[in-house]
Give the backbone structure.
Amino acid sequence: MRTWAVQGDITTVRVDAIVNAANSSLLGGGGVDGAIHAAAGPQLLEACRELRRTALADGLQVGDAVATQGFDLPASWVIHTVGPNRHAGETDPALLTSCFTRALDVAAEVGARTVAAPAVSAGVFGWAPDDVATIAVRATHAWDEVHPGMLDEVRFVLFNAAALEAFERALSGWHRVVRRR
């Protein structure tokens, strides 16, 4: 599996599935979540409301993931995951690891071969980009070792240069980094 990082807008990436740094309500929010909901169109909100009416009445738990269609996005699927909020005392790295591994599990379940993911929990949720990058890269490579050949590519699509640099540092240890801007 190829892993790499790029700075850009995750809503414009042409991959099979994008990962959404969602909130537990699945009903949209700010940051990546708001941008994905806006770009996907109103059908995404309706799909999330249906999940809340049926399978996820109490919302999506931190560290878990669920898929919806991508609707107006270039990606066929949106994999929603709820990252831990450091400001709310959710400081266990295992929760953040679970976000990435569960997102990859769900992507594989829907048949995705290429996935784009943001820096889940960085920014508003208070996790440092370097910590998120290290956890994300380790989790992704560990997942690939257990599920070889299930995915062709995981691309980390980062909003700003600081996050990109953090992911490039984390990826450089795996000798699989491709720098593109």
In short: The chain has one domain: 2-180. Helices lie at 31-40, 42-53, 93-109, 129-146, 161-172.
